[in-house]
Design brief:
With about 400 residues, this protein is an alpha/beta fold. The protein is built from 14 helices and 14 strands. Pfam families: HTH_24 (PF13412), ROK (PF00480).
């Protein structure tokens, strides 16, 4: 059984949680960790020493005394080890390095052509991560990561990923990627662990760790060119049996006529309410628009066709999420991606949720935007790697 499969009670006070408490500032000493975890001081000390030996924690001086010997303060190293992160999209990728607390050290956005195929795209992005990992991140050369400082790389893919194998399964709008083993391809080119997951899962993990780490149950929707979602259950990312948990994109909604979907069915949420669907619908109405950026511009300008379609899309997303909320009963539903800033869509989604959900399910439900910015995906990718590093050491 892996650390991700273990019951949550068994993880309380485990290495990953001790590291998280120090990284978030909830604990600065062994005594703090003992108090938060309920573990004995000797057990905490053993686990802290193991994390220090792995380079995941360090002692950063003495803290304030409360009547005895001054406690040694703990901190997550920030000047050495880093993790690499890639948040891949259809047209752009966000690439960065983050320290072991999940803080962004360096990040940049670069254009990609997903149709160029996995070998070309991934080789280029891995080279970008390697370059960032050796570039100074501060004002002096001493701030540069040391050789071998890269501890792992997390990669988010805009399509279904079998997480256990790192293989892509039947993605839409990703020609040449079906069945590609991303993890194996990367393992032949880098000497550190590479963890692969769906981009919506990484957005969910990054948003949850950054904004709502205290909440146990949450659903995060990524609405851009496509639509996906990530699920946090019992405080952990929930992937299901094969890694497809949270994939709402091919749930059918009531639509007349039901537009065809890339999966071969008709009336799927992605075919009705995604950014790509809005572009197609506007073109069919004779509205000249090139891409999702153009759609959002029309909505911001009050174009009646674009605004009406955004409201319809919000209702469709709300109808699917109402089933999710009634079934799963999360504490928060948050929407991210480029369509999250579309107010008519968000208002329509929220209204549909309140209309279709049981009062008990929405009594304390938070419905909000993901507010963590463009680095939410690489933040999630970094936490995925950090969790893996802690689990295997």
């Amino acid at each position: 059984m892996t650390i991700d499969d273990a019951p949550r009670d068994a993880l309380r006070g485990g290495p990953r949680e001790l590291l998280r408490w120090v990284a978030t500032g909830a604990a600065v000493s062994r005594a703090d960790l003992s108090r938060l975890s309920g573990l004995s001081p000797s057990t905490v000390s053993q686990r802290v020493e193991a994390l220090i030996s792995q380079g995941l924690l360090e002692e950063a001086g003495a803290g304030r005394s409360r009547g005895g010997r001054r406690p040694r303060q703990l901190a997550v190293p920030t000047g050495g080890a880093v993790v690499g992160a890639i948040d891949l999209g259809a047209h752009h990728a966000r690439v960065g390095t983050l320290d072991l607390s999940g803080r962004v050290v360096q990040a940049r956005t670069r254009p990609v052509r997903i149709e160029d195929g996995p070998e070309a795209v991934l080789a280029d992005l891995l080279g970008e991560v390697a370059a960032l990992a050796v570039v100074p991140n501060g004002p002096t050369p001493s701030d540069a990561p040391a050789a071998g400082a890269l501890r792992g790389i997390g990669i988010g893919i805009p399509g279904p990923v079998q997480h256990a194998t790192g293989r892509i399964v039947s993605p839409s709008r990703m020609p040449g990627w079906n069945g590609f083993d991303v993890a194996a391809f990367c393992a032949d080119r880098v000497e550190v662990p590479v963890i692969v997951d769906n981009d919506a899962n990484l957005m969910a993990l990054g948003a949850h760790r950054t904004t709502h780490p205290d909440l146990e149950h949450a659903v995060y929707i990524k609405a851009g060119t496509g639509i996906g979602s990530g699920v946090i259950s019992d405080g952990r990312l929930h992937r299901g049996a094969q890694g497809s948990a949270g994939d709402i994109s091919h749930c059918r909604v009531v639509a007349d006529p039901a537009p065809p979907c890339s999966c071969g069915n008709a009336g799927c949420l992605e075919a009705v309410a995604s950014g790509a669907a809005l572009v197609t619908a506007l073109r069919e109405q004779g509205v000249p628009v090139d891409d999702l950026t153009g759609v959002i511009r029309l909505i911001d300008d009050g174009d009646r066709h674009a605004t009406a379609l955004a409201r319809q899309a919000g209702r469709a997303i709300g109808e699917i999420l109402a089933v999710v909320v009634n079934f799963f009963n999360p504490q928060v539903v948050a929407i991210g991606g480029r369509l999250a800033d579309c107010e008519p869509l968000l208002a329509s989604m929220r209204a549909t949720l309140y209309e279709r959900c049981l009062p008990l399910a929405t009594q304390t439900l938070l419905i909000e935007r993901v507010t963590t910015g463009q680095d939410v995906g690489i933040t999630g990718a970094a936490h995925l790697v950090i969790d893996h590093v802690v689990a295997v050491n």
